[in-house]
Amino acid sequence: MSQNPKKSYLLPEWKEEDYRQMNEWLQRHWITEVEFLIPDLTGIARGKIMPADKLLRIVKIIYFFKGRCLEIA
């Protein structure tokens, strides 16, 4: 009996090429900081600013662990 790995429907498939393209796009457009909204515990949207290179590291970590974390949940 073969086991089929669980497929995550929350996050699309991630390839190293996607990460490289995202990094190139940020550099080509001279984007050094990224602004985004994150809800706090009460649901109020709060604006945050993050360096672009830190955002890339976080994205890479999320996609690396996505299968492992979603299988636990």
Key structural traits:
single chain; 73 residues; 19% strand; Glutamine synthetase; Gln_synt_N_sf; glutamine synthetase activity
Structural commentary:
- The chain is α+β, with helices and mostly antiparallel strands.
- The chain has one domain.
- The protein has 2 helices and 2 strands.
- It has helices spanning 16-28, 52-72, and strands spanning 33-39, 45-51.
- The chain has a two-stranded antiparallel sheet with strand order 1-2.
- β1 and β2 (45-51) form a beta hairpin.
- The longest helix has 21 residues, at 52-72.
- The protein is flat, with a radius of gyration of 16 Å.
- The mean pLDDT is 78.
Concise summary:
This protein has 73 residues and is an alpha+beta fold. It has helices at 16-28, 52-72; strands at 33-39, 45-51.
Detail the topology: elements first, then pairings.
Layout: H1 16-28, E1 33-39, E2 45-51, H2 52-72
Antiparallel strand pairs: 1-2
Helix pairs in contact: 1-2
GO biological process, one term: glutamine biosynthetic process
Organism: SAR324 cluster bacterium
GO molecular function, one term: glutamine synthetase activity
What distance lies between the first and last C-alpha atoms, to the nearest angstrom? 24 Å
- Label the structural class: alpha+beta
Summed over residues and divided by their number, the pLDDT gives a mean of: 78
In this structure, how is the largest beta sheet organized?
A: 2 strands, antiparallel
Number of helices: 2
Report strand order across the widest sheet.
Answer: 1-2
How many independent structural domains? 1
* Helicity, as a percent range: 40-55%
InterPro entries: Gln_synt_N_sf
Protein name: Glutamine synthetase
GO molecular function: glutamine synthetase activity
